[in-house]
Amino acid sequence: MNKINQPTTIKTRNIIIGMILMFIIVHIGFHATYIKQFPEFQKYNWVHHIHGALMGAWVMLLLVQPILIHKKKFAAHRFLGKLSYVVAPCVIVSMVFIARQNYQTGILKKTAADVMATQSITWMQIVMFVLFYSLAIYYRRNSYNHMRFMIATAIIMLGPPINRIIFSYFSDVPTLYIFLISLYVKTGVAAALFFSDFVKKKYLKPGLIVLLAFIFSDVVFHARYTDAWQAIGKLIVKTFY
Prior knowledge:
With 241 residues, the chain is mainly alpha-helical. It has helices spanning 12-33, 46-70, 74-106, 112-138, 143-157, 159-169, 175-199, 205-222, 227-240. The termini are far apart. Helix 1 (12-33) packs antiparallel against helix 2 (46-70) and helix 4 (112-138) packs antiparallel against helix 5. The chain has one domain.
């Protein structure tokens, strides 16, 4: 059933171009707020550094893996794939620690309700990363599904650098709009990939799952001040913070 309407070949060149663009966006975004502070790194601690290193490692994996496939270096690709079994859980744990620290510093300046509302973005990123990576591993023997879900983890990575780019270079943009722009850009990319699959009559299931996940993330953000999300936020704080 999984083979229905799946392409016999995957155009890795397009994927490589997309990953290079992601790498550039990530670099620009974090150069403005983090990299350029080397070596002092004022206002950053070991949690930020470990998180940054792990996220950087994940971005490099996303960039290198399609290149290895394009060059037919399948043994190296499989080795790095197995390495992701260690890197991905570490990324998830670091995301939780960063969320915890952001909450603890946030409540010093804002109400708990406001901080939990903002963290709706962070926690949806964590949930989606877990979902997409888990599905990518589940479909590791199905090249097309595996590729689509790994690309989805790359789309998640676009949010934080886009926020930082707008904040650093377009400081007059209201914070709410910055969040909305980054959310809608990610959903737009997911929608474009799904539409591409639809037009080309490729297998639609992975793209649809990814798109629905990003749409749900947007809905959660718009519902961030509802009693339902605030209750979830309080549960998260009690459990993880």
